[in-house]
Amino acid sequence: MIGFISQPKPNPSPFAGEQVFHIILDERVNDRYVWTNGKEYLSYVKHDDEKLDKDLGTWIIGSEPGEDNGYVYLRVNNTHTLSPIGLDGDGVNWNWLSNKSWKEQPQMRVVCVDKYAPTARYYEVEYFDPVSQTAHNSFLVTDFSPYLL
After folding, report:
1. Residue 111 CA: distances (Å) to CA of 28, 61, 70, 131
2. CA 88 to CA 99: how far, in whole Å?
3. In angstroms, rounded to a whole number, what is the distance separating the alpha carbons of residues 27 and 33?
4. Sign (positive or negative) of CA dihedral 48, 53, 57, 60
5. 5 in helix, strand or coil?
C-alpha cells in the first residue's frame, strides 16, 4: 500500500476515496503497476506528444487507469520504477486540480504504508544468440513479493 502524506492544511484533498492506494497485482498499464483506493486509480502515462520531452511520463490519479485525464499528477523522467515511491521531491512535485487550476504541492509525498517496504527484484540474464553468434544481457523484473527469495 502507498499513501499520500504532508498534504496542505486545511486539506482541500481532491481524492474521492481514501488517500491510501492498494496495488492491483494482475493489472499493468504502460509496463507499470496500477494502484487503487477503491474509487480512483493511480497509474503511469507515457508521453507520446512531440511537444513534450519524450523522456517524461506522468503518474496520475483519475477515474480510468492509463488515461491522461485526472486531477492529481506527478511529472517524472521516464524511469523504470514500478511505483511513484521516492520520485517526488527535489523540484519534482505533485500537482492537483483545485478551483479549475493546477496547484503545486511541494511538501506532498508518496510513501509505503505496508509493514514491509516492497522492492522490485531485478535479475540479469545472459543468453547466446546462435544466429548472430553474440551474447546478450537482459533484465527481468519479478513481483513485489518479499517471499520470492
Report:
1. 20, 15, 20, 46
2. 23
3. 6
4. negative
5. strand
pTM of the model: 0.70
62: Cβ contacts below 8 Å, ≥ 6 apart = 40, 41, 43, 69, 70, 71
* Residue 49 pLDDT grade (very low, low, confident, very high; cuts 50, 70, 90): low
Convert the pLDDT of each residue in 20-45 to its tens digit: 899 898 888 888 889 999 999 999 99
Distance CA 41, CA 20 (A): 11
DSSP symbol at 116: S
Cell of 47: 508521453
Q: Is the dihedral of CA 79, 110, 37, 116 positive or negative?
A: positive
- Dihedral of the alpha carbons of 57, 104, 7, 71, in degrees to the nearest 10: -60
In whole angstroms, give the CA distance from residue 31 to residue 50: 21
Eight-state DSSP code of residue 92: B
Q: Whole-number mean pLDDT of the chain? A: 77
Name the least confident of 55-69, 73-87, 95-109, 111-125.
Answer: 111-125
